[in-house]
Amino acid sequence: MRLKETFLVKHAVGGRTFIDSSKQDVVYHVEKVEAGWMFSLNVPFDAVVEDILNWKDELNVFLFHESEGEPTKKTWFYVKDNPVKYDHENHCLTIVAEAHIEYVPERFRAS
Predict the structure, then answer these.
(1) Per-residue model confidence as pLDDT tens digits over 76-107
(2) In which order are the strands placed within the sheet that holds 92-97?
(3) In which domain of life is the source organism classified (predicted)?
(4) Strand 3-11's sheet: what is its strand order?
(5) For labeling, which of 9, 10, 34, 101 is most exposed (least CB within 10 Å)?
(6) H-state helical runs in the chain
(7) Among the listed residues 35, 106, 96, 95, the one whose alpha carbon sits nearest the alpha carbon of residue 64
(8) pLDDT tier for residue 109 given thresholds of 50, 70 and 90
């Protein structure tokens, strides 16, 4: 069974997509930390990273997991007031999210 993972960094829920690993090459790492989950991205400092830092209080991070024959499983991470930082020396953007929700859109129904 093949697994595909897509990583997104978005402004708010339905807002602008800053990073989409399905459309651009981005090296990222996800790690469980005391405060929640830490996302580390190896990216050069550019206008997109600058926008991410400017909107750091309104970010959401998503991971989409796709497996053959299965519906896509989405995990929505809430950044809230957690740190979003850029290390210029190591070209590393870090985003810490404190909470998350996992769901399968085909099985989700609003009440």
Answers:
(1) 998 888 899 999 999 999 999 988 888 887 66
(2) 27-33, 36-42, 92-97, 84-87
(3) Bacteria
(4) 17-20, 3-11, 59-67, 73-78, 99-103
(5) 34
(6) 47-54
(7) 106
(8) low
Q: The tokens of 76 are what?
A: 């929505």
pLDDT digits (tens, 9 = 90+) for 18-45: 999 999 999 999 999 998 999 999 999 9
Q: Considering only CA atoms, which of 89, 67, 93 is closest in space to residue 9?
A: 93
What domains sit in the chain, N to C, each tagged with a CATH number? 3-107 (2.30.110)
For residue 8, give the H/E element and its range. strand 3-11
Dist CA 28 CA 21 (whole Å): 9
